């Protein structure tokens, strides 16, 4: 969800928590990310406060390749290619693979954020052997994925 709380600044809602304070009124504590600066802030709103909800347009694209800090994507219907910042994907940029369907959220024609599918299939390039022996707890093994991302 996207909101505007001050003079045209747009924020992405990262987390929201509703709390009730005994006899006092309820509040909603919200963790927000400023779209322009990328800074995170925490705000508290009373339940009777009005905030402006910003509606964004969501479009699907096909991931082509990364080049430095940029990601090349293609609109599947018109085959129009577009270059966007890798920062829009956040930590999910490590999971980008060829021909992956990604979603971008736009406001006034400007990309605000991007996301990968909730489930991603990755290929393991290399995995270290596990320790031999009987253990009471499961042992995790670090693995190198084809995208050069270590898990």
In the CATH scheme, what's the topology name of the largest domain? OB fold (Dihydrolipoamide Acetyltransferase, E2P)
Structural domains: how many = 2
First-to-last CA distance: 30 Å
User: Strands of the biggest beta sheet: in what spatial order?
Assistant: 4-3-2-1-5
Q: Describe the main β-sheet briefly.
A: 5 strands, antiparallel
The H-level CATH homologous superfamily of the largest domain, spelled out, is Nucleic acid-binding proteins
CATH architecture of the largest domain, please? Answer: Beta Barrel
Characterize the overall form: flat
Are there runs of 5+ residues with pLDDT below 50, and where?
A: none
Q: Secondary-structure element sequence? A: EEEEEEEEEEEE
> How many strands?
12
Radius of gyration: 21 Å
Structural classification: mainly beta
Our count of helices gives 0
- Mean of the pLDDT scores? 82
Approximately how much helix is present in the residues?
A: under 10%
Q: DSSP strand (E) fraction?
A: over 45%
What would your notes on this structure say?
- By secondary structure, this protein is mainly β.
- It has two domains: 2-53, SH3 type barrels, CATH 2.30.30; 57-115, Nucleic acid-binding proteins (OB fold (Dihydrolipoamide Acetyltransferase, E2P)), CATH 2.40.50.
- It has strands at residues 2-6, 9-20, 26-34, 40-46, 52-54, 57-67, 70-74, 81-85, 101-107, 110-115, 124-127, 143-145.
- The chain has a five-stranded antiparallel beta sheet, with no helix packed on it. Strands 8-7-6-9-10 form a five-stranded antiparallel beta sheet, with no helix packed on it.
- A hairpin with a 5-residue loop joins β2 (9-20) and β3 (26-34).
- It is flat and about 60 Å long.
- Belongs to the elongation factor P family.
- This is Translation elongation factor P/YeiP.
- One of its GO terms (cellular component) is cytoplasm.
